[in-house]
Prior knowledge:
The protein is 28% helix and 19% strand. The protein is α/β, with parallel strands linked by helices.
Amino acid sequence: MVPDAASLTSSPAQATPLPPFPQLPPLPSLPRRLSAEPPGWVREVDVVVVGSGIAGLTAALECRHLGTIMVVTKDEVAAGSTHWAQGGIAWVQAEGDTVEQHIDDTLVAGAGLCIEEAVRVLVTEGPDEVAKLINRGAEFDRDLAGELELTREGGHKRHRIAHAGGDATGAEIERALISAVTADRGIEIVEHALVLDLIPAEVDPDEAPAVAGVTLHVLGEGTRGGVGAVHARAVVLATGGIGQIYAVTTNPPVSTGDGVAAALRAGARLRDIEFIQFHPTVLYLGPGARGQLPLVSEAVRGEGGQLINSRGERFMVGKHELAELAPRDVVAKQIMKEMAAAGVDHVYVDGRMLGEETWRVRFPTIWHSCRQVGINPATDLIPVAPACHYFCGGVETNIDGATSLSGLYACGEVASSGVHGANRLASNSLLEGLVFARRIAERLQDVPPPRRPPAQDPRKPGLIDRSVVPALQQAMSRYAGGLRDAAGLDRCAAELAKLAQQTAAEPGLESWEATNMMAVGAAILASARLREESRGAHWRDDFEGRREAWRGHLLVAQDDQQGLRHHFVPAPPMSVDRRPDR
Ligand code: SIN
């Protein structure tokens, strides 16, 4: 049974007519679970956390008093996206800044689709959670007087972004959290373990669908190697993003959307997944570059860096009141327009005015990435182009991280908590991981006893061959990336449907990941095809600007009868909703 929409997504009684959904093209057929050998071992814990970035590790620490906690992570514990976060973490702290201003900036960036209650929770509860993070050992950069150094990034009207190690904020946060988690003997970390599927719980016919744990594959031999099952009172998904479904991304290789795909197969609702944020300034390494590419942080522009087109013009001035510091979707779109107009595949960040000393101290990571390819940011323009960066939607949750499946919670990038709307405000994501992980732990005080898995899982298994991945990434980038239209999305659906026929006989990490990427890609392109407007990070070339009828949340769930099933829930009126002029 797929849960009905609107129990989580707030659905005010209002007369907004639903937009008519266009007819979807045939989509790839998706399995309901991954083919794998049956579990050879079973563990019982209270809470299993899947993922080991800021959200997962914070959830583990915050849940610690609830009993036995297991953190399952696909690679080494530090291999996820948090480690790569450069710019920083935003919270209200400076004189002259206010909670209302941070909320306002978040809502404006979110292009009319943020859930205001979630944004208020984020901004008001964020400062205490950062204080806790600092107590846990994270060290942010300070000036000679010991005050935090603050910067700005796209969409922020105040200086409120703290950073660490110059541009190595995520690495410092991850270091501090790993050290706190590993010092706690009550938290077990299982590395090199891919969660395959969520285990459905046995429920009465009138009960909501529920989750009883996870199946996973642990690399290695012996008692805990191979495929096993972990039964838990609660599963917390914190698996991060989906960037690897595109040909170029800032996300690390582990970001293959495994948590999103597992939630979809289990029948959980996803929300607003068509909003994929393309970071405007990713180091351009030539037309053949693939996979994870180095970020050139927005903080470079926060410190005075400028954007220059192929004619040497500073093109953001006059396009938005904040020029280079306009919200990320605005800058990315303008860069794409500049590139299309000049028939080129990159523009430039000019950070020469910062000087070598500032570059080395304030931006050591970017300095190093540039020097490795022969660019000197103190004397050269840095070639940049947009690349996939952040999944603004995700597994739908309420403000306590609860999903549409009982026993399943989600936080961090995998979740759609409602704080990002159609376009995330820079440096809000680390904050989101902290705040909603803690709220899940609070909610779990009343978590019911463990549920039983069914004797047999009736869901149809399947597996797609790993060889399809490069073609899938190309199709997603070409047709379902920063710029989309109906014809391209239909083409993408046809290509993915063809690729999905290449099934794999042998289960293994790469074919499990390929199957997950196919599921996430198919779901994203379907939602992108349905939403006939341009809003935030979803840019339809055939539907210019926002349309009021589409100001709402697009939900999708998978069921056996219909494959992907969509609902639309109109958004309530917002206190800030700028006109669709960007
Ligand atoms: C950046 O440093 O530009 C990225 C920060 C973010 O994605 O929030």
